[in-house]
Amino acid sequence: MSGPPSEGGPKRWAAGKHDARQPTAVGRSGPLRRVLAPVAVALVAFVLCGAVWSVPEARSVLRDSFTERQQAYIELYFGKEPFLQGHELVVPLRIVEHGETGGRHPVQVWVQDAEGHRLGSRTETVTTKPGALISVDVRLRFKGSAELVEVTLPGHPQRLRTHLR
After folding, report:
1. Which residue in 90, 102, 75 sits closest to 138, CA to CA?
2. pLDDT value of residue 139
3. pLDDT digits (tens, 9 = 90+) for 10-28
4. Is the dihedral of CA 42, 43, 44, 47 positive or negative?
5. HEC letters along the chain
């Protein structure tokens, strides 16, 4: 015959019963583990995100996927009408680079007569900074009767044209 365990008899338990002295699955995960598990997962996710963000190429791709970024471009316009000063044509230009880099950009200026023949040309290199207005006066000597002034940024679609008065 079997008696209760306290009487020294064999231990037989009914289904679903357990000894309170034995650890159970619930007893092994205390409140500390329930708090540490989500904190550890969040910490690992934070470290992984930081590692990905530290790679410039990955950062650029992430920015492109989450934000709408404008294409970089250069704004080119006349500061005022080109004018003759002595034997030189002065072409006042304004340049603003909209983008992230800035840099050195060639600006090509030439004048033509009424028949479309080039009378003279000049290339100036302008150093830009993102968002900064850069003013430059390109001075050009030529012979003949100039009718048209053209300005381009080689490698960019911008082109300015004006007729001299």
Report:
1. 90
2. 95
3. 555 555 555 556 555 554 5
4. positive
5. CCCCHHHCCCCCCCCCCCCCCCCCHHHHCCHHHHHHHHHHHHHHHHHHHHHHHCCHHHHHHHHHHHCCCCCCEEEEEECCCCEEECCEEEEEEEEEEECCCCEEEEEEEEEECCCCCEEEEEEEEEEECECCEEEEEEEEECCCCCCEEEEECCCCCCEEEEECC
